[in-house]
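call fold(seq) -> tokens
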Amino acid sequence: MAQILAEILNDHRNYTTLLTLLQDDIDKLQHSENPDFIRLYDIMNYMSNYPDVTHHLVEEIIFATLAEKSADAIPQIKLLSNEHQELVKLSLSLKEKLHHVTSGSIVSKDALIKTANEYHELLTNHICLEEEQILPIVENTFTAEDWSLIDKQIDKAEDPLFGDVVQEQFSDLYKRITLSKSELT
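ret:
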């Protein structure tokens, strides 16, 4: 498996971890319990700063290459590209709502839950579509030369949360993730 593809799949596993934490807190909110709003905000801050900016750009470069090689994949590629745009809108909307909550402003509980659920559902289904339908085609179709050309086009940005060095702005979230994982075992 190409390194870039392995990194995308690893990113997806990390995002799934964050989606689980997001859903746990939204479930608490729906049951009138106290969610960790700071963790929720930190999750969405990360999602709007790394996946929305870096991860999806890599996928778009891969999709463009795939579109040249497989006309049959073009409808799914268009759908996934549109979903990337919708995910950006939803993540920014959810991040903004959470920023208001953590700043002490009043935010509609129903609107917050609705946006969080829409985001969770869209990203979960999006990852599933990529992994079940598009990435297997990519893995079976792309040559070493294709991967080399893609590699030259992508930004080598380090993941600020799950990379080798956790950026300061995500250190609290990293600690919360580590704590949550230890509570599960």
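The radius of gyration is 17 Å.
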